[in-house]
Amino acid sequence: MSSFSCPHLELGRDFCLKLKTDCVPGRPGCVLQDNSGFLFSAEDRIRDRLSDKNETPKKKETK
Ligand code: SF4
Which of 4, 6, 21, 43 to mutate to test the pocket of ligand 1 (most atoms within 8 A of CB)? Predict the structure, then answer.
């Protein structure tokens, strides 16, 4: 088992300093694009990230 720590990642907000956008490993321009495999495509994960950002705030839970 191995782990990877990207030097371009701004911790805390998952921001890619190289690409000036959200860190989505394997996305176009990412250092992992051509040398790594992912269970889900970068396109799907980018779409999910955008979807999460546009998500409407959830209603507050009532006790
Ligand atoms: S998108 Fe790729 S290059 Fe950018 S921070 Fe994430 S892993 Fe690193």
Answer: 6
Stretch 20-48: mean pLDDT, rounded? 95
* Residue 38 CA, ligand 1 centroid: distance in Å: 14
pLDDT of residue 58: 55
Phi-psi region of 49 (alpha: psi -120 to 50; beta: other; left: phi over 0): alpha
Domain boundaries, the chain: 24-51
Q: How much is the pTM?
A: 0.80
